[in-house]
Amino acid sequence: MNIIAFDTSTEYCSLALWQNGTVSEREVLAVQQHSELLLPMLAALLNEHDLTLKQLDGIAYGAGPGSFTGLRIACGVAQGLAFAHDLPVVGIITLEAMAQQVNAERVLAALDARMGEIYFAAYEKSGADWLPVHVPLLCRPEAAPAVTGQSWVGCGSGFDGHADALKNVYAGRLQQIIPDCHPRAREMAQLAAARFINGEGSAPENAIPVYLRNKVALKESER
Questions:
Q1: What is the rounded distance in angstroms from the CA atom of residue 12 to the CA atom of residue 27?
Q2: What is the pLDDT of residues 5-23, one digit of tens each?
Q3: Predicted pLDDT of residue 213
Q4: Between the N and C ends of the chain, which has fewer C-beta atoms within 10 Å?
């Protein structure tokens, strides 16, 4: 099985190819050039492994939460490629991909959502799966939902930018914070592979972004 996965939800443009359990990846700090970089990176990665789009079995993409523009790029590319080559798609939650990246059984994943807020989710490992203790939500760091138990590991730009507030919320429960953690296509490919194998791939038109905020920016009068 050959699966391509990509993520453009943050300032990074991340791409991975999953081939029967072996993952090859490419990633660049794109800032705002994701739309220009993604398809050439994909072509280069496939060429490197002597593959074409027709030889893929599925496409995975970072569904969100994250940058509004970045999510639209990922969903648009996933839809276009999937329609053109009759491929199923799987959307991966960016926060779950971050949990997959962390070597821990309990993970608090948080992305900086700007405007003093974070995208947040809490996961516990159950076998090969991640069970959501708190599904993805948008909140202020000081209002992040409580968790029970010990040995939680925090990760993501939400912790990088709001460490003090989140440490205060999870005092006594937070074992470690992993710095500089962002969603990557490698983990999305790993998560998507199991779902494709289980027949959970969806039609291209279902490649839609996960938005947790309707408002992109504050008006000048609200700042």
A1: 7
A2: 999 999 999 999 999 999 9
A3: 82
A4: C
